[in-house]
Specification:
This protein is of the alpha/beta class. It contains 8 helices and 7 strands; from the N terminus they run βαβαβαβαβααβαβα. Helix 1 runs parallel beside helix 2, helix 1 crosses helix 7 and helix 4 runs parallel beside helix 6. The structure holds nicotinamide-adenine-dinucleotide.
Length: 232
């Protein structure tokens, strides 16, 4: 008799780290529920995962919309791993940063993690287990970045969110950790490991956070950056 697949939910899965995570998680034995606002990209992700023999369902989901996130979450049975990945890098220096820009960046890069956790936590609490992984960034976690004020502040907020959620959800058997990637767009010379990172580097780490070996770690924001954050 075959073991039933675990379920991983991955947001922002149409490309980049989310698409790589969908593939890596399916390869490590998850059924992947992949979502994004980019329908064409999601089709590509589904094709890649299915070609590799994986199990995947795709759905259009805008993580900025509370009701959409809530009704998406309500459609699931057991969810073992939530990868809250959707986000974007905005560029605006202080003088050109208006409130609307600030709010759009923090809504997607910070508030959406809370929205997703709030929607999926009740099911995880009921099953007394679950893993939540939120995508942060070394911008905000370990260093400042001129022109990325809203981005860095929103990503710094993810560190606080991860710590506090870990406290609230830990007693229910749920771990909450963050991944702070970097080095995917840097020059190899800036990176101690002397190569540019790939979405797959981050995706494989996300798989590790979902694995049994990570069962006693929670509340951590972990830099996955080839050492870039310690070389600054
Ligand atoms: N690539 C890097 O170097 C890097 C560095 C630090 C942090 N990160 C973080 O990792 C995460 C993924 O980054 P990436 O490089 O793969 O980005 P990406 O731009 O390649 O992919 C992001 C995905 O999120 C989707 N998305 C955007 N807005 C959405 C919304 N409202 N609802 C649902 N989906 C939405 C996009 O359509 C896209 O498919 C982000 O949170 C990003 O901030 C990336």
């Amino acid at each position: 008799m075959s073991t039933p697949l675990r379920t991983a939910v991955v947001t922002g899965a149409a490309k980049g780290i989310g698409a790589a995570a969908a593939l890596a998680l399916s390869r490590s034995g998850y059924h992947v529920a992949a979502s994004d606002i980019d329908g064409e990209g999601l089709k590509r992700t589904r094709k890649v995962v299915e070609a590799a023999g994986g199990s995947i369902a795709v759905a259009s989901l805008d993580v900025r919309h509370t009701d959409a996130v809530a009704s998406y979450a309500a459609g699931f049975g057991q969810v073992d791993l939530l990868v809250s990945n959707a986000g974007f890098a905005s560029v605006a220096f202080l003088e050109e940063l208006d409130d609307a820009h600030w709010q759009a960046v923090t809504d997607l890069n910070l508030t959406s993690h809370m929205r997703l956790a709030r929607a999926f936590a009740p099911g995880m609490k009921a099953q007394k287990s679950g893993r939540i992984v939120c995508l942060g960034s070394i911008a905000g976690h370990t260093y400042g970045w001129p022109g990325r004020l809203a981005y860095s502040a929103s990503k710094a907020g993810v560190t606080g969110l991860v710590r506090t959620l870990a406290m609230e959800l830990g007693p229910h058997g749920i771990t909450v950790n963050g991944v702070a990637p970097a080095g995917l767009h840097a020059a190899a010379e800036q990176i101690p490991l002397r190569r540019v990172g790939t979405p797959e580097d981050i995706a494989d780490f996300i798989v590790m956070l979902g694995s049994d070996g990570a069962r006693f770690m929670t509340g951590q924001m972990l830099s996955v950056d080839g050492g870039m954050s310690v070389s600054l």
